[in-house]
Amino acid sequence: MLRIINRQLDAERELKRIGDRTFSGEIEPQEKAVKEIVTTVKNKGDEALLDYTAKFDRQVLEVVNLRVSGSELDAAYQQISQDLLHAIQLACQKIEAFHRQRVPRSWVQFNEDDIVLGKRYTPVDRAGLYVPGGRASYPSTVLMNAIPAKVAKVPRIVMVTPPGEEGKINPAVLVAAQEAGIEEIYRVGGAQAIAALAYGTDTIPKVDVITGPGNIYVTLAKKMVYGTVGIDSLAGPSEVLVIADETANPTHVAVDLLAQAEHDPMAAAILITTDEKLAYQVQKEVTRMLEGHPRKTLTEKAIANYGLAVVVESLEVAAYLSNLFAPEHLELEVSDPWGLIEKIRHAGAIFLGHSTPEAVGDYLAGPNHTLPTSGAARYASALGVETFMKHSSLIQYSDTALKQMSSTIQILAQAEGLPSHGDSVRLRTE
Amino acid sequence: MLRIINRQLDAERELKRIGDRTFSGEIEPQEKAVKEIVTTVKNKGDEALLDYTAKFDRQVLEVVNLRVSGSELDAAYQQISQDLLHAIQLACQKIEAFHRQRVPRSWVQFNEDDIVLGKRYTPVDRAGLYVPGGRASYPSTVLMNAIPAKVAKVPRIVMVTPPGEEGKINPAVLVAAQEAGIEEIYRVGGAQAIAALAYGTDTIPKVDVITGPGNIYVTLAKKMVYGTVGIDSLAGPSEVLVIADETANPTHVAVDLLAQAEHDPMAAAILITTDEKLAYQVQKEVTRMLEGHPRKTLTEKAIANYGLAVVVESLEVAAYLSNLFAPEHLELEVSDPWGLIEKIRHAGAIFLGHSTPEAVGDYLAGPNHTLPTSGAARYASALGVETFMKHSSLIQYSDTALKQMSSTIQILAQAEGLPSHGDSVRLRTE
């Protein structure tokens, strides 16, 4: 049952507990396991990948089967419905259109004394996308990772995903990859896949950036190889926070909470409302909808452990609590969502008004669904085209400009005790 | 002596060795030490800070002395020359002017069927700047970290830096902080300072983002707390790569190599040139200038271990080798630097032409001097205003728009086995 809380202090404590759920347990055993996997793959390459795939995925592969073949890619189109293909294509279009907005562009600026300053943006050479297997093997994950990389014009994009039964990969995932323009796909998952992308093996190329969600092993492996490669973020379980006033429809709020909870027993679904009656109606609806829910067991678990309804006296307090939690997804189910937005400081994505359930953003509104979790919205943003780009600062001084700045630079160099810094200017301008 | 290499394969091998120098050694003992420090600070707060400061910095402080007082801040102005003050002020102005260019701005876009999409940019609530002590206690480091945070409008910015003799902090560092608008400064360094910023203590506030360079302990601590807070990057020792043709002045190239080497015995200084004669002239000049260099011992060590001149047959090969190395600083000391730039794929900052020594960018050209090292330029960029900002995606659908997309979303939700996702749309549109 969805718990209801009325006191702000209790709410703050509960929100903190839920926010800390990801890394609250003891993770040293996993860290140790991941370290061993990463080191072994770094040293033994493909051989280690096959060993770990046999051990963890219980699939016995040979090196030649690591890469998904052209005929498997073709066959995937026969294994999904036309309706699904068209849905994937429409999502693809809409996600691409959004990501093409405000792509970083190189610029230079000409200043007095012929000083030229600027930034030059370029894509990374190679990107590696991780797509989870099993319960979370989603075509939408593929689109949300692949399309920004494509828009960034990354020359080589590879995808890794663990093999399922008989080494198979979800055909919808294979179709989504191809629709997004990716055909280099390897059948490997877990920490071993992350290590392969970070260090390269005979079969799998070393990449510059690794993105995509995964379980705790994948996440710890990403953290471990960060610095050798770039990563998008350390993804934790998903979460939604709904701020609702008396204009919200309790059935809609309830189904949105369940849409989050059904992802994962660790998912969090939180309602903050100024309307106590609404809280009880939502509680009732959640209970009703859980009956006969196809994913009842895990969804119920998420609601019981990380579900919460908080009744507050004003939308200001609701915004305050939401900012404390810094949710991945924030729904503003209130009469004036644009009026409330000014009070929101931290949220991965904000869904405004009564006709914008989070599912719209999960699939096809356009903005990326890879968002900061576990409070990371305090400092991080959605995955985007810039995840796959970087810039070089550009600086050109003329003779005149250097002379102009010469004494200032020498004073600073002297203060820092770096004589050659000063000399590099002095020798050019004396 | 600066080594000269003529064969491309040797050059590739040497560049790889130099690029890998940061983490090539065994760092497990340091990792273990850092883990203990971070955990202890997390659990014991200020008490642990004082203990570690006594142990590592050999300074016995009390809690009330952790924060640098107003009178110390005032006094710092009396301890530096007017010339240095004016140099800091000019650098401040020029760095701020550059960082005010292209600050991320919120935007929304109105689409058909009353769909509103956009991104809302906000600063982080709190930023923590780390400024090293000892050999690398530089006012320029303060400016390059503080100014982007100020331009981002971060409401609370705190600085930490280890105490020197008698608990003192470099007055130029204190003045630079104040000129950049920072007055909350704590006398603590090392991994313990990073832990304090990540978890908070009674005295030091928990922040959202930690930036700034440091030694291996600081860097490992930043990696460890990444996920709890955001970080700028994992900084390694500094490096310059100079591409020069026959138009370059050997004395200028030599002094630029030394200006990098004088930072740190681990610093790397690399010349790639199409002109063999230049290589030998630079070698001779480096040797000559090292005589009587005030930081001879460490500079010589850097040149011996991580200095290199490579003679190549063309600027294309030079660019190829440079891209392999992905240098933090790249100088193009060639007749047509803008012609060469198209071939450069990875570099933190590019200094164009004969009158742009790296020192210009280190101090006051404007672009940030906090740049990706150790090959991270393959995927990362300079510190910037965006390091202290994040965005929330904005999505608003109208009734009509949701109806329009209803069946597509339901098809995708069904394919992913997430019934409540589909229901959240179906229940709103049926």
Automatic annotation (TrEMBL), chains A, B:
Positions bound to substrate: S238, Q260, H263, H329, D362, E416, H421
Keywords carried by this UniProt record: Amino-acid biosynthesis, Histidine biosynthesis, Metal-binding, NAD, Oxidoreductase, Zinc
Listed GO MF terms: histidinol dehydrogenase activity; NAD binding; zinc ion binding
Protein name: Histidinol dehydrogenase
PROSITE patterns: HISOL_DEHYDROGENASE
Cofactor: Zn(2+)
Record pathway: Amino-acid biosynthesis; L-histidine biosynthesis; L-histidine from 5-phospho-alpha-D-ribose 1-diphosphate: step 9/9
EC number from the UniProt entry: 1.1.1.23
Co-factor remark: Binds 1 zinc ion per subunit.
Catalytic reactions of this protein: L-histidinol + 2 NAD(+) + H2O = L-histidine + 2 NADH + 3 H(+)
Active site: E328, H329
Known role: Catalyzes the sequential NAD-dependent oxidations of L-histidinol to L-histidinaldehyde and then to L-histidine.
Residues that, per the record, bind Zn(2+): Q260, H263, D362, H421
One GO BP annotation of this record: L-histidine biosynthetic process
InterPro entries per UniProt: Ald_DH/histidinol_DH (IPR016161), Histidinol_DH_CS (IPR001692), Histidinol_DH_monofunct (IPR022695), Hstdl_DH (IPR012131)
Enzyme class: oxidoreductase
Family: Belongs to the histidinol dehydrogenase family.
Binding positions for NAD(+) per the UniProt entry: Y130, Q192, N215
One CC-aspect GO term: cytosol
